[in-house]
Design a protein that fits this description.
The protein is of the alpha/beta class. 47% of the residues lie in helices and 16% in strands. The strands form two sheets. Strands 1-2-3-5-7-10 form a six-stranded mixed beta sheet, with helices on both faces. Helix 4 crosses helix 5.
């Protein structure tokens, strides 16, 4: 049986491919646990600069991820469902808080937990054929992996309520207009586009990227004054680094800096 999640690391870029195309890359417990373990381990990879998450394309319509595996869900007890929701929520928080930037390459359908996974990423790029939505209320439940919290912070409260209350599905173009994603590209260009974004990010200072991510994520959870304090402390961490001196020297010498993450 093929691996349920494919991993490829090259030039500091880790590409993770959800590999259940026969089920439109929905999350069963095994896939969820695999993603959780890989993301946790990424925090200890000193060579890592960026993560890209995408979905395998099979014979059916292309899918990034269509959320929880509802076939498996029907076999679960009430307590099992509670455990699953806790695990998927904590896993997506791990994605949000992993030390490096994460790009979602949304190559098709992204419903429920699939969109919630993308919301936990730092940058979202979608193929022109992508369709997405938090459709849980249509199944008499609510988004349980961060959707009710992350979506309003990204698209605003009114749009988030409309999408969640109506179990609304939107196209990539609609997602771009409301700020849910940052780019729409043709399907055949999606991965190349995401890799180019990742390469651009990866050439910058690793510690600076980590602290910028931390400052943005944590600053958005509090008042402006508190956020400015977080920014100041995050900046202070970059001051004594070798990379900061390398950046200044490279600028003076008119050459490309060689950052080491130190």
């Amino acid at each position: 049986m093929s691996d349920i999640m494919l991993k490829e690391e090259k030039d500091g870029i880790l590409t993770l491919t959800l590999n259940r195309p026969e089920s439109m890359n929905c999350f069963n417990i095994a896939l969820l646990n695999k993603l959780n373990a890989v993301i946790k381990e990424a925090n200890f990879n000193n060579d890592l600069r960026v993560i890209i998450i995408t979905g395998a394309i099979g014979e059916k319509k292309a899918a990034f991820c269509t959320g929880a595996d509802l076939v498996e869900r029907r076999t679960m007890s009430v307590d099992d469902v509670k455990r699953f929701i806790h695990t998927i929520s904590s896993t997506f928080s791990e994605v949000q808080n992993v030390k490096v930037p994460v790009i979602a390459a949304m190559n098709g359908f992204a419903f429920g937990g699939g969109l919630e996974l993308a919301l936990a990423c730092d940058i979202r790029v979608a193929s022109s054929n992508a369709v997405m939505g938090l459709t849980e209320t249509g199944l008499a439940i609510i988004p349980g992996a961060g959707g009710t919290q992350r979506l309003p912070r990204i698209v605003g409260i009114p749009k988030a309520k409309e999408m969640i209350y109506m179990a609304k599905r939107i196209t990539a173009d609609e997602a771009l207009k409301c700020g849910l994603i940052s780019q729409v590209v043709e399907p055949e260009k999606l991965m190349d586009t995401c890799i180019e974004i990742a390469k651009t990010i990866a050439q910058n200072g690793p510690i600076a990227l980590q602290q910028a991510k931390f400052a943005i994520n944590k600053g958005m959870e509090c008042s402006l004054d508190v956020g400015l304090g977080i920014e100041t402390r995050a900046y202070a961490i970059t001051i004594p680094t070798e990379d900061r001196i390398e950046g200044l020297n490279a600028f003076k010498d008119k050459r490309k800096p060689e950052y080491k993450g130190r």
